[in-house]
Amino acid sequence: MGLSAKRSISSFVISPLSFARGRWSFANSRTEVGDAMTETPGTNKGFEGFEKLRVYRLSEKLADTVWDTVKQGGYLAKDTVGKQLIRAADSIGANIAEGTGRASFVDNRRFVRNARGSLYETRHWLRRAHRRALLSVNEVDTITPLVDELGPKLNAYLRSIGSGPKARVEDAKTARTEANVEK
């Protein structure tokens, strides 16, 4: 089945995806304005537009830089540390994206914490790759500032999720529901 066909997953319909000018978008539900993707009125209600988040775009930049760096290495480096490094870096943005699609602030925060864990894992694999001389000093100097910038931005984003009164009410409801489930 091609990407242009509609697919149904547990009664949730995913709109056709299109790839235009270097980015994926939901067909008929997004309009490109400058550097950001914006919601088209009346379509795809509730979609938070994770593509707009600076922290998400920075995670993409990190993942793409890691990919470009790893694909230049030898087979052993790519097959061992390289794959792990790519998976960890890609997971940062994937968790941010998944969190924005969740129904509660609690869930969103959990996925941002997972993204932070993936950032730490990325940092670990970068240390291993550097120690094993799989990355040059220039490659390390290119990737390290992205990792260093992303950490504080992830923490700031985490603090910003559900910081209003509505979030406190939702958190209390979720906590009560979870407590009743555990009994």
Can you put this structure into words, describing what you see?
By secondary structure, this protein is an alpha+beta fold. It folds into two domains: 16-47, no CATH class; 50-182, Up-down Bundle (de novo design (two linked rop proteins)). 61% of the residues lie in helices and 12% in strands. It contains five helices and six strands. It has helices at 54-70, 75-100, 105-131, 137-160, 165-182; strands spanning 7-9, 12-14, 17-20, 23-26, 30-33, 36-39. The strands form three sheets. Strands 1-2 form a two-stranded antiparallel ribbon. A hairpin with a 2-residue loop joins β1 (7-9) and β2 (12-14). α1 (54-70) runs antiparallel to α2 and α1 runs antiparallel to α4. The longest helix is centred in the middle third of the chain and has 27 residues, at 105-131. The chain starts with 6 loop residues before the first strand and ends with a helix. The model is unreliable at 1-47 (pLDDT under 50).
